[in-house]
């Protein structure tokens, strides 16, 4: 029951008063009407601005009385919709314990978890795709001198060869080193045959930002070569947003050393060999756990049969059927919504239901194998959501009754106002 005198908090969508609104109008005058130079309170235009500000303040007061549910509906009317709930994602780095001499594959669905410090439940993430960590060797070594690109990859790998990548060095020249995409190294080993003199530069990596822009950014390194004046190592930590780019037609993880100044008579180093170590691989992970196999039930061939999974929401799944001749043949792929014509038309519901038709051959076992379900940020299930929407059904050779499970929008999350309302009712 509601407590007498207890007020439900009203959402404050806009906290500006008439003075703040009037000040914004006055600040816009020089840009909109530069010929208006008198901004004193006695000016009739300022008086009108104050009157309009008072009216706008009244509209804001009325706007703040609108419930969040109504606000969402108003936004829907102008095409602004809520972002549907989804599984949390993160970029995970896998570090090798030793320098790999062969390719290492981390399979899709490999699970990692937070430490669970402070008594919190560990949060489980699983890889969204296979990650291949390649053998530790430089993929490409490119020298850019005055816009002319030269490939020194074979020279950089051969310790018996001495080469000069920038024989007539000028400001803006650069050397580029590539490793495979989504693969990184934190240690570059440089064998200098003849030291550089009178040349300085900066190490840079390629950063892709969330707003869609990208550029070469400075990389903090511990340069044991002292600017290619001696043999040594260049060590650094891999930045989180170091992304692949294309240089000389090769898409890879690129690192470059760009020349920033050259003294009179300055020369760049002659090199003998370059090598890499301390290898990492990066892959996208989702807050999900993998269920290796779950028996959904048995089909008798009746129409509109439904089979429910134990956990929702489902990120991806493969559904298989056992017809007795071979163990659990794959019937359809949930993520791609593929069905074999004449066998079954799959339908998936937001509750994790799966329905369709089978040939009437008696009871046929149905199973879901290697499917992933999201746990939410702290282990609690988020609002149900399907990562893949159901496609159009595959036509059958002859008409059969079929009813698809409707895919409606996910349930709306409770907001602060409704939570306060429930609290007041108690």
Q: Can you walk through the features of this model?
A:
Helix 1 (18-32) packs across helix 2 (44-63). The protein has helices at residues 18-32, 44-63, 68-77, 153-157, 416-425; strands at 89-95, 104-106, 111-113, 124-127, 131-133, 140-145, 148-151, 174-179, 183-194, 197-208, 214-218, 222-223, 232-235, 245-247, 250-267, 270-286, 288-299, 305-308, 314-321, 329-333, 338-339, 347-348, 353-356, 364-374. The strands form five sheets. Strands 1, 3, 4, 9, 12, 13 and 16 form a seven-stranded antiparallel β-sheet that branches. By secondary structure, the protein is mainly beta. The chain contains five helices and 24 strands.
Total strands: the figure is 24
- Give the overall shape: flat
Tally the helices: what do you get?
A: 5
Beta content comes to: 35-45%
Question: Helices and strands: which structural class?
Answer: mainly beta
CATH class of the domain at 140-285: Mainly Beta
Low-confidence spans: 325-362, 377-426
Q: Mean of residue pLDDT?
A: 75
Radius of gyration in whole Å, from Cα? 32 Å
In the CATH hierarchy, what is the superfamily of the domain at 140-285? Galactose-binding domain-like
What string gives the helices and strands in order? HHHEEEEEEEHEEEEEEEEEEEEEEEEEH
Termini, distance in Å?
A: 5 Å
| CATH topology title of the domain at 140-285 | Jelly Rolls
* Helix amount: 10-25%
Q: So, CATH architecture of the domain at 140-285?
A: Sandwich
Biggest pleated sheet: 7 strands, antiparallel
């Amino acid at each position: 029951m509601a407590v007498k005198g207890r007020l439900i908090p009203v959402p404050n969508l806009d906290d500006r008063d008439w003075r703040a609104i009037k000040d914004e109008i006055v600040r816009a005058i020089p840009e909109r009407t530069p010929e208006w130079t008198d901004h004193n309170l006695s000016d009739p235009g300022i008086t009108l601005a104050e009157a309009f500000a008072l009216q706008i303040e009244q509209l804001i007061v009325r706007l703040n009385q609108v419930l969040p549910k109504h606000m969402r509906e108003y936004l829907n009317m102008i095409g602004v919709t809520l972002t549907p709930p989804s599984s949390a994602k993160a970029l995970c780095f896998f570090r090798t314990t030793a320098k790999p001499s062969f390719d290492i594959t981390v399979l899709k669905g490999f699970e990692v978890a937070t430490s669970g410090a402070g008594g919190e439940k560990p949060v489980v993430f699983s890889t969204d795709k296979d990650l291949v960590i390649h053998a530790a060797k430089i993929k490409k070594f490119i020298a850019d001198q005055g816009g002319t690109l030269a490939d020194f990859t074979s020279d950089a790998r051969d310790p018996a060869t001495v080469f000069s990548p920038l024989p007539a060095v000028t400001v803006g020249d650069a050397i580029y080193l590539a490793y495979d995409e989504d693969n990184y190294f934190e240690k570059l080993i440089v064998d200098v045959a003849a030291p550089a003199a009178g040349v300085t530069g900066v190490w840079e990596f390629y950063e892709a930002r969330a707003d869609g822009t990208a550029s070469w950014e400075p990389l903090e390194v511990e340069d044991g070569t002292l600017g290619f004046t001696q043999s040594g190592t260049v060590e650094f930590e891999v930045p989180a947003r170091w992304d692949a780019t294309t240089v000389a037609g090769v898409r890879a993880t690129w690192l470059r050393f760009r020349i920033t100044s050259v003294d009179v008579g300055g020369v760049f180093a002659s090199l003998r060999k370059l090598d890499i170590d301390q290898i990492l691989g990066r892959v996208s992970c989702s807050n999900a756990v993998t269920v290796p196999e779950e028996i959904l039930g048995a089909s008798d061939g009746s129409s509109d049969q439904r089979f429910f999974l134990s956990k929702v929401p489902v990120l991806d799944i493969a559904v298989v059927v056992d017809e007795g001749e071979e163990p659990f043949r794959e019937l359809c792929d949930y993520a791609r919504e593929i069905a074999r014509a004449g066998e079954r038309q799959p339908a998936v519901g937001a509750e994790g239901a799966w329905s369709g038709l089978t040939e009437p051959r008696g009871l046929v076992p149905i199973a879901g194998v290697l499917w992933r379900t999201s746990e939410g940020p702290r282990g609690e299930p988020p609002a149900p959501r399907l990562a893949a929407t159901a496609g159009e059904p595959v036509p059958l050779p002859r008409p059969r009754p079929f009813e698809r499970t409707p895919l409606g929008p996910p349930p709306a999350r409770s907001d602060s106002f409704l939570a306060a309302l429930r609290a007041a009712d108690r």
